Amino acid sequence: MNTKAKLIASLKIWVVIYPSITLFLYLFAGTLSVLPLYQRTLILTLCLVPWIVFAGVPFVNLLISRISPKTGKR
């Protein structure tokens, strides 16, 4: 994988993860605040990693494929 492809992949993941973490913490920070940090982190990652891998990034890829110009097949 070249540097440009890695940068694009990183940006796609960031576009999904930043709002996901923000929303998750907004909704559950109060509930999770009684737990130790390592348990909060475990719960956050258990919920958000599957979301990001199976729904969030594929959705971003779908959006990009729909708005990007169609190129001819090579």
Give the structure's gist in a few sentences.
This protein is mainly alpha-helical and 74 residues long. It has 2 helices and no strands.
Description of the molecule:
With 74 residues, the chain is mainly alpha-helical. It has one domain (3-66). The chain has helices spanning 3-32, 37-67. The longest helix is centred in the C-terminal third of the chain and has 31 residues, at 37-67.
Helix-strand makeup class: mainly alpha
Major sheet details: none
Average per-residue pLDDT, rounded, comes to 92
Compute the CA-based radius of gyration.
16 Å
Q: What is the general shape? A: elongated
Could you say how many structural domains there are in total?
Answer: 1
Number of strands: 0
Number of helices: 2
Beta-strand portion reads: under 5%
N- and C-termini, Cα separation: 20 Å
Low-confidence stretches: none
The ordered H/E elements are HH
User: Helicity range of the residues?
Assistant: over 70%
Oligomeric status = single chain
